[in-house]
Input
Amino acid sequence: MGEQRRIGSSLRFASRPAIVATGTVVGPMEAKGPLTQWFDTVVDDAMYGERTPEKAERRFMQDAIDIALGNASLQPENVHLMVGGDLLNQIVTSAFTAAKYPAPFLGLYGACSTCTEGLIVAAAMVDAGYADIAVSVTSSHYQSAERQFRYPIELNIQRKATSQYTVTGAGAMVVARGAGKVAVTEATIGRVLDLGIKDPNQMGPAMAPAAADTLFRHFADLGRTPEYYDLILTGDLGSVGSSILHELMRKRGVPLGDAHRDSGAWIFQGVPGTGVGGSGCACAAVTLGGYVFKQMMANELSRALVVATGALLSSLTWQQGESVPAVAHAVALEVQPQAAATS
Output
């Protein structure tokens, strides 16, 4: 029968597809935080010389893809599948960017959980043999997200104390068959939870229960505890959502302990004017593609669990008084034993 691929509500990738390269590009605000050394490119102008933030976001995404392909010594023609998503209506950033590449494209929307959603799809397609090389990419931009979900920044609306600051940037990952050091071993696909939160400035509290649900099912399905991982990275709960997550996991009898970091609370740590932390599709993507991947390549981390979180609101539904559903998807990464031994 072979190795079991579905364990409860989690997946195990039998061929252990690997992230062989990443590309990360961020804006000037992100460079002020503690993770700046891990990003491939820092752009001094968030507008990237473009006329609109939407066009600037496309440049961030395209550059992230090109960097990842370059780091993998691949050409666009070598890619069998591209998966991607972003925050803008009809994921237009991903669509316009994908049009510049010859690979077949699957567009995804998981809000800020799109980073791990895309990685799951890419790894599953590679594991099943439908692609030998796949690229997963996602992006966000502070100005484009503010314009769509809240108010254009030109209006100078005062932000609430609980607001999060959308990360300007993009992260791309190349997933391939064969020998790679950072294997995608398991995944737990999230369930949509809706606890009735209606304030779009309270995304952390809306997403924390979804993160707790996915984490609890992941540990239960695979018979693991948080101590199994060197790092459990959520994103992007921010400081408020992270506190709620820890309380929820303690109540379930599975405290996360010191291994947990939240990309939203981390990426803008100590940066004034960023509220309770970062958000946006790029938040988890650049933290995973930057810090996590490079630390695993350097053998500083052996096992990591990345749980990207998404608040599934739209500007239309919250203006109509609807609540904010949320979802979280988990991906387990492990350094291949033979790769670690030869490094």
Remarks:
- The chain is about 35% helix and 25% strand.
- The first helix runs from residue 53 to 71.
- The two ends are 34 Å apart (CA to CA).
- The chain has two domains: 6-176, 182-337.
